[in-house]
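Hi Y.,

Following your request, here is the sequence exactly as I used it, all 264 residues.
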Amino acid sequence: MFSGSFSLLQDKRIVITAGANGIGLSMARCFLEQGATVCVCDQDGTAVAALSGSHSKLHGFEVDVADPSAVQSFFEASERTMGGLDILVNNAGIAGPTALCEEVSIEDWRRTIDVDLNAQFYCTKYAIPMLKAAGSGSIVMMASNAALFGYPLRSPYTAAKWALIGLTKTLAMELGPHGIRVNALCPCSVEGPRIDGVIEREAAKRGVSAEKVREDYQRQSSLRTFVSPGDVAAMALFLVSDLGATISGQAIGVDGHTESLAQL
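Below is the corresponding structure, written out as tokens. Let me know if you'd prefer a different format.
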């Protein structure tokens, strides 16, 4: 991704949640190229198994990040594996239901909040002592451009992502004196199976074609485009490396400038 004889993350120890697929896997590969050792966790055991042996400095664990005891065990295992921690990327998240608020089931609301918000707290809670022990560090929260606008039909997802911005700014204040930076990334629609599923569900809910919804989503951005997992990984690399050494407490769009989100 970057040319030259130096590595931006040489000997850095990194945890990425939901790191066996999509954005998380793209970040893992990017960070490995820059000299890091990476522990990823993912609920997809098949994808985790596929990573086994793919790189000497990549370690995978099957974990449901909505389970606090499983998260604690994962961080203990990652500490044994890497000897410490310098960077946490809280990437795990789910799309949640596509429905009007009164139609959202209690179960779907709780599961979305558990994965998209509570899990970020669990991971951060167990990462902070390791980052403090390292003497400095960086945390990246995976928010969304849905954290910047209202988002009809996606109330639990939007609520969680807005909450992550508040958590990011609060943690930046708490951890700044320890040399730990905390930022949130706010991508727009990221190409891949997850957004394809979101588009199909919204199309069914609105009674229009999937192509119509995709076009609506693309028009939300000034650049009229979706982003790739690699686009998000590149910004994460900037933030967690020395290139972003004085950036903290920010919600940073990787979105071609979102003008608005879809309407009913």
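The helical segments are 22-33, 45-51, 68-82, 106-134, 155-175, 193-206, 210-219, 229-240.

Thanks again,
Q.
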